[in-house]
Amino acid sequence: MSLEIENLNLHYRRRQVLHGISFSLEPGDFCALLGPNGSGKSTLTKAVLGLAPISNGSVKLAGEDLLGLSRRDRAKRIAYVPQSSPVPFDLRVYDAVMLGRSPYVGIRFNEEDHATACAAIDKLGLAALADRYVNELSGGQQQRVMIARALAQGTRVMLLDEPTSALDLRYQVETMRLVRDFTRSGGIALMAVHDLNHAARYCNRAVIIAEGRLVSDGPPQAVFNADILSQVFDLQVDVSTQDGITTVRPVEDEDVLETSSFRHAVRQFHQLSA
Ligand code: ADP
Ligand code: MG
After folding, report:
1. How is domain 3-77+155-273 classified at the CATH fold level?
2. Ligand 1 pocket residue status of 53, Cβ below 6 Å
3. If you take atom 26 of ligand 1, which residue's CA is the nearest one?
């Protein structure tokens, strides 16, 4: 059941935003989608979901053309956590999560829908908030509701657009673990994320895009190359691996100055004037 994204091109008006993006994901893949602001991560995610019309290309799941399916059928196959935005509905947490079950519902929700939604609510630590109105929650709590709703959809593929951006450290880690568990049990996840260290730690794949083009694709250890990252993010970074954990950190002026002749000159100046 692979998810095959092939030669996706997309224009907004006349501006080309995605240029021939191709990669495919297999069951078990937890893939980080990385790139600077405006590089096309959200657009790519929406294109895969059929929410942004592509100029050409295809998206296939287990050989089936996803973009040719009805919205309802697509929602049985792929769940989506959109980039955080004010939640557009005036619903209680429980009902918002139940919306994830709507692709399956005939006339009304059944016991299984209820049990699935409750399990998702529990997983996201939302049980105590189940009766609260979503639009009265904090940004991070709302984000957890959106993740629970996607989980309740019971799909084998999840696309998540910066789902951890408003979360505190604990829920960032819990979300990364939750998605990793989802992929370890045979799911496929593609997650736009800015925290490179989380990506390196929890993902087994990383795809980097810049200006709508695929720059790099592979395991994080291979993709997280200081030269590539520095160029893509237009910021000098240092990449190191210790005990199998890759860490990316920006290089600060002091790191450079410490050894530079400039620093040496400053020291000499201070000695002279002391
Ligand atoms: P990212 O998620 O990587 O920050 P986006 O996919 O949101 O980037 O945006 C990619 C590019 O497409 C940007 O230049 C952005 O301005 C443009 N863009 C995004 N959405 C629209 C839209 N609805 N109409 C026109 N241009 C858009
Ligand atoms: Mg985005």
Report:
1. Rossmann fold (3.40.50)
2. no
3. 12
